[in-house]
Prior knowledge:
The protein is built from nine helices and ten strands. The chain is of the alpha/beta class. The chain has an eight-stranded mixed β-sheet with strand order 2-4-3-6-7-8-9-10, with helices on both faces. A two-stranded parallel sheet has the order 1-5. The radius of gyration is 18 Å and the shape is globular. The two termini are 34 Å apart.
Amino acid sequence: xxxxxxxxxxxxxxxxxxxxxxxxxxxxxxxxxxxxxxxxxxxxxxxxxxxxxxxxxxxxxxxxxxxxxxxxxxxxxxxxxxxxxxxxxxxxxxxxxxxxxxxxxxxxxxxxxxxxxxxxxxxxxxxxxxxxxxxxxxxxxxxxxxxxxxxxxxxxxxxxxxxxxxxxxxxxxxxxxxxxxxxxxxxxxxxxxxxxxxxxxxxxxxxxxxxxxxxxxxxxxxxxxxxxxxxxxxxxxxxxxxxxxxxxxxxxxxxxxxxxxxxxxxxxxxxxxxxxxxxxxxxxxxxx
Length: 288
């Protein structure tokens, strides 16, 4: 459910959660055949990722809903669909099982009618070992993408509950990793929102501006912690705010460990990658 953390009230379009579940109520529409038709209709050999982003964006602008395209970069297998909701997307169980398989390399493309950056719920899906990257294209031109770092993946694996193992029960272990990543994303988001509220209260930022940037700032914190590599076309609006939230989020993780801290190893985070179009996204996906 989308939420506006700045006011504490649900507001449509603030974030765009992604739910890894199949829908049995008839709301989900499989659009894989329609996606394939759009590719075959294009001249030459169109890039799958550019085609996926364009399809999700075009369909979203037509319907007002979120649409998703999943591409396995190893096999070329694709799936497209929509829950017919402007605020969330859902993935059939067959695709979820593929995401739990670490031998896969899947990229999820979806649109955000709100034009917002990747939400904490979107980022949490990177805990699934078969997911290479998650990409969001906004209806006003905003683009954001993220991949889990090697350090982040190793850290998540060490935090799987005893008895849950990627080889013995890949789905349970994958859910553990996704849940852990969501917790870290929420900690980062909470640290950002507290600071944004102060800026709004002091008149240094408008509520509209704060709402537009809060998911982007959250992702910058996760990038700074070394959990994800993040790419965005949005400007680095509040760098000092991100620096303070980074320390806060790190401290909350250590406090929650109950004296059994397993800190993320320090890494040169480097700047967030500038990504104004699919060329930047492809560079992140391919590790260039």
